[in-house]
From TrEMBL:
This is Pel9A-like right handed beta-helix region domain-containing protein. The keyword Lyase applies. Keywords: Calcium, Lyase, Metal-binding, Secreted, Signal. It is found in: Secreted. The keyword Transcription regulation does not apply. Residues 1-24 form the signal peptide. Pfam families: Pel9A-like_beta_helix.
Amino acid sequence: MRNVLAASAVAAVGAVLLAAPASAATVVVSNVTDLSNAIKNATAGTVIQVRAGTYYPTATLQSTANGTSSAPVTLTAYGSEVVKISGSSLPSGSWIFKLTADYWNVSNITFQDSPDSAVVCQSCTGTNWNNIKTINGGDSGFTLTGADTINNTVKNIDSYGHYDAAEHGENADGIAVKYGSGTGNLITGARLYNNSDDGIDLWSFSSPVTIEHTWSFGNGKNRWSDSAFAGDGNGYKLGGDGETVAHVVNNSAAWDNAGNGFTENSNKGAIVINRTTAYANGSWGYYFATGAAKLGKNLAVSNGSGLVNKGSSVTSSGNNWDSGISTPSFISTNATTTYNARSSSGTLPATTFLTTGSSTIGATMN
Ligand SMILES: [Ca+2]
Ligand SMILES: [Ca+2]
């Protein structure tokens, strides 16, 4: 019996190896049942292409199947077609899309109207998210969470209009990288706005996250007529829950948020912030009262509480609050163009808003 089992095992291994090329098929789907099954049944190398339309799953789309670095799983729109996945037929409390998996590439899909979080990647390694949108959900738009959250890239995401009614807006962020750990995670080219809580929140994440070329604006305002509204409204909430971690923010901007533009949120680590701009936020442009942040070449203008609140452990040089540094004029303070469509490649729309032409200070807004 043992020999038979052993022989079967060898045969099974052989079959898997032989079957690998066939399983790397391209699957084209055009209805929600096929979409759900394709995600559920994906294996390394599977390419799922979704035809144009709005899809209404009745259960969370999810997978625990890993791709590999050389044979990732791909989930993308077919050609240049417009694909939306709506959570409006899901049970309350549901997410639209949950991955607990490694090496997936997800691109060119909108996830909208989720009852709860829209997209959650839990303990994911090596996932790439390109040109996706998370819109108008009932909790955070896009979430990375859990141990072994490693080497994930979120590129050119739009995440806006999220609001958690049950907690009066206290939790719904544009992007949440929270409750977890793992290095090599990058957010680039994000546009995070009009969410009830923060633009991006790194609460209780114990490894450095890098953020660049990102705009965070209009968060934390009561747009839902909630009489007990509790959103915080920080553009970049860079810590919390006792973690000491050196997150990095480069060439990014925060404006018109209800709270601070950029805040350590009690993180005492050596957070690095360079060439960013904070304009017309409700509280401080930069709030780093207790930690050891390194602030360089940042530009703060017209924030409600002031330019910067920095403690004695903060390193500060070349910012417009440092002595001898002048404040360049903005070419435009009209934000209208920041809502425009992205370029065909997915980069942020061209704008002169908050640009100065300076090569030494502030965000370049691209
Ligand atoms: Ca909050
Ligand atoms: Ca938050």
